[in-house]
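Please fill in the sequence for the structure shown.

STRUCTURE ENCODING:
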């Protein structure tokens, strides 16, 4: 008994028709009958009998016949719906467009990804590859400013340097063209990209490793183990001594919440000079209202807390830090590879970063996985806790008491939910089984 005989009535016949049609398309392609390939595929699509591979083959065949970029892009994306796609799918589609040399459509898809994940560095970095500053200086400045605003950390330094070079080239091109309006807009974008509502730098001297942990007003935490938070904070530098150039921790929030920030400075290893650190707080950096404050924090056996307040922050909602990269690069589709199952845009396969696309930001979940959060439930004591150790003298006449009081104060408590649900074993984003982690959806109880 063949596998088709076990399928529902009519499905086996449909699969056989698909196989015959794909074989016919391959034969026509080998014969160079590209116009006939286009005609037959369009007839099937118009008749409502489209398969994922048909859109891809149609676009590639149109490209062989010399069709325009927009026509080719529209054909390939015929089975893909950008308005309903999430940022990883949009970036995957943009990467595939870039592979085919359709950079204008790829750039537009990157812009759509930014609209859904404004603070993700990956869409800006990909767009930077697809907007030559000599040809499209305004687009190049937009992408460069986005990289400068969102890409932070040691791994992002090469991308930031590239963005600065692209921005300089784009500004020169705008001046050469005499585009005063574009030049003013570009300068404003680049100036805004350098702004930061809050910067905290911790410096010390000596051979020591000091760690900074920041608890933000919504209750989110940025630390050496969670270097980017949903509160917008990024631990840009995690330094160590004795070299003064590296003996620094830097915390930066391009757009920050108003409220109280709890800074916790702790000694991990070593011994800093004077057992103290110097803390510099910069509010509204890069704006006319920039202000600076410095103070000294002594280091103790436990982390030393300090409270700072920010007013006039520009953040109104939590950031999305679940930024995934597209799957690995496949080889380009060939007509001889067609099967009745197909592969391509509509099925979500056939996408991946091309060799010419930088993906050097190291976002959370890099490598195509998903990000989840598992709650860690603990009890917190508030108030005064007194510990005592008693030592009785040998003659039992005296008792020596060692008292160790602890003062604990819970500053604030914020309610939140865990995003993501998992109802079964279906494939999740990126083809990963399960698709997420259990828990109530945002806004749920």
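FILLED IN BY: designer on duty
SEQUENCE:
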């Amino acid at each position: 008994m063949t596998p088709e005989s076990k399928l529902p009535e009519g499905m086996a016949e449909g699969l056989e028709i698909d196989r015959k049609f794909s074989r016919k398309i391959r034969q026509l392609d080998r014969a160079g009958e590209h116009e006939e390939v286009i005609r037959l595929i369009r007839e099937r699509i118009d008749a409502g009998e489209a398969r994922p591979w048909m859109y891809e083959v149609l676009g590639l065949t149109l490209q062989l016949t010399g069709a325009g970029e927009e026509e080719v892009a529209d054909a390939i994306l015929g089975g893909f719906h950008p308005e309903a796609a999430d940022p990883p799918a949009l970036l995957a589609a943009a990467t595939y467009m870039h592979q085919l040399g359709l950079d204008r459509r790829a750039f537009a898809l990157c812009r759509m990804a930014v609209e859904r994940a404004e603070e993700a560095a990956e869409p800006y970095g990909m767009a930077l590859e697809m907007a030559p500053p000599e040809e499209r200086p305004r687009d190049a400045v937009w992408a460069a400013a986005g990289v400068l605003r969102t890409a932070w950390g040691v791994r992002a330094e090469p991308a930031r340097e590239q963005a600065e070079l692209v921005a300089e080239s784009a500004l020169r091109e705008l001046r050469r063209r005499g585009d005063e309006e574009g030049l003013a807009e570009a300068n404003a974008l680049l100036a805004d990209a350098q702004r930061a509502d809050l910067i905290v730098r911790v410096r010390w001297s000596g051979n020591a490793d000091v760690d900074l942990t920041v608890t933000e007003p919504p209750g989110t935490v940025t630390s050496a183990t969670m270097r980017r938070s949903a509160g917008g904070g990024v631990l840009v530098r995690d330094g160590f001594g004795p070299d003064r150039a590296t003996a620094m921790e830097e915390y930066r929030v391009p757009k920050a919440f108003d409220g109280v920030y709890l800074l916790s400075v702790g000694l991990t290893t070593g011994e800093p000079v004077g057992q103290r650190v110097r803390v510099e707080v910069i509010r509204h950096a890069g704006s006319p209202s920039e202000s600076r404050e410095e103070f000294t924090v002594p280091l103790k056996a436990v982390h030393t807390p300090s409270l700072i307040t920010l007013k006039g922050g520009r953040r109104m909602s939590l950031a999305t830090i679940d930024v995934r990269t597209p799957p690995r690069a496949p080889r380009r589709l060939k007509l001889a590879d067609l099967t009745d199952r197909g592969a391509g845009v509509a099925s979500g396969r056939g996408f991946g970063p091309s060799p010419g696309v930088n993906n050097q930001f190291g976002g959370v979940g890099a490598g195509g996985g998903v990000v989840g959060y598992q709650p860690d439930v603990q009890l917190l004591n508030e108030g005064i806790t007194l510990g005592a150790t008693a030592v009785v003298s040998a003659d039992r006449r005296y008792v020596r008491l060692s008292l160790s009081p602890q003062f604990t104060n819970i500053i604030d408590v914020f309610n939140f939910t865990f995003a993501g649900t998992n109802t079964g074993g279906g494939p999740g984003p990126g083809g990963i089984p399960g698709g997420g982690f259990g828990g109530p959806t945002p806004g749920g109880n």
